Amino acid sequence: MDIKKVLNEATKQIERCSSQQELQNVKVAYLGKKGKITELLKSLKDLSLEEKKSTGAKLNSLRTDIDDLFKNKFNSLKVKEINSKLKNEFLDISFPPPNLIPSKVHPISKTFDEVISIFGSMGYSVAEGPDIETDYYNFSALNIPENHPAREMQDTFYIDDTDKDNKPYVLRTHTSPVQIRTLLNEKPPVKIIAPGRTYRCDSDSTHSPMFHQVEGLFINESTNMGDLKGTLIEFCKQYFNVQNLKVRFRPSYFPFTEPSAEMDIAYEIVNNKIHLGTGDLWLEILGCGMVNPTVLENCNVDTNIYQGFAFGMGLDRITMLKYGLTDIRSFFSGNLNWIANNGFSIGDY
Ligand code: PHE
């Protein structure tokens, strides 16, 4: 057996390898279970005791030599790979970005600003409440008792922590709890809107688990359903910039308003584009009604003196309608190209 020859051959093959994978293949061919050296070691069993001793020792040192060759080559290949990575993936952090993407205002932010400005001009102030609510503010105080089917109208996200009533906290399913917070803190007359984030366990092209609503609440001694309709029609005319906007109010049910209605606006598709305010198709944009006296009483408001209306409008929905956007999920994609194409410059205001 020519041990020198085997060593020479192995040295050559190892030298020729230019990648770690290639080297690994050669290693298997020599030192693997069925490799050359392994086979040679196996053949020792056919030799005499004397030969076994001398050849065995030689084979063992051959195996160690070859193993060292592999180790050295692996290391040098690794260094080479790191060096070439360092060279090719060089990053100059002081280099200016090639395409400066101009900052844009998100369509939802623009809608927030417009909603606040339009209702602001009608005398509404802005109120706020927390996104994480108690069961009481989100449901019970709004006349949605436990085990009431109305609770299932809104697929709620519950939080793994309980409040002082031992009820799990919820991500608010609507902005209506701000009605309660405001009425408990302020004496009527009250005239507020509450724009903000809301959450429901629902997701498709027109529903997002996190979405936006604006709540409206107007309580005084005489406000009636006619005022409610006038307010909402005026808002839509201004927001959608359409003077003759066809709308309808459909009777509906909410535990916290009585009577209750939903407002739809008319639209039609002209040349593949949505046209608002005319036509025979209807899109629901909000729920509203006269505040249920039970809710006012829950907030210690004297219902012999005070009454009023409330509404809750989907801000994502009206934004999509206004700008002809079809997938609510695009609002929350965080895609810079999307915002570059669909966002607004401050100058557009
Ligand atoms: N909170 C209701 C919803 O999210 C909307 C609404 C608000 C209805 C105020 C009536 C009065 O569906």
Secondary structure topology:
Elements: H1 3-16, H2 20-31, H3 36-43, H4 49-88, H5 107-121, E1 125-126, E2 132-133, H6 135-138, E3 158-162, E4 168-171, H7 177-185, E5 190-199, E6 210-220, H8 225-240, E7 247-254, E8 257-270, E9 273-276, E10 281-291, H9 293-298, E11 307-314, H10 315-323, H11 336-342
Parallel strand pairs: 1-5
Antiparallel strand pairs: 2-4, 3-4, 5-6, 6-11, 7-8, 8-9, 8-10, 10-11
Helix pairs in contact: 1-4, 2-4, 5-10
The protein binds phenylalanine (PHE).
Phenylalanine binds at residues 174, 176, 254, 257, 287-289, 310-312.
How would you describe what is shown here?
It is a single chain. The protein is an alpha+beta fold and 349 residues long. The chain has 2 domains: 86 residues; 236 residues, 2-Layer Sandwich (BirA Bifunctional Protein, domain 2), CATH 3.30.930.10. Helix content is 40%, strand content 23%. It is built from 11 helices and 11 strands. The strands form 2 sheets. Strands 1, 5, 6, 7, 8, 9, 10 and 11 form an 8-stranded mixed sheet that branches. A hairpin with a 2-residue loop joins strand 7 and strand 8. Helix 1 runs parallel beside helix 4 and helix 5 crosses helix 10. The longest helix is centred in the first third of the chain and has 40 residues. It starts with a helix and ends in a 7-residue tail after the last helix. The mean pLDDT is 93. Bound molecules: phenylalanine. The site of phenylalanine has 10 residues, from strand 10 and strand 11. The site of phenylalanine (PHE) has 10 residues, from strand 10 and strand 11.
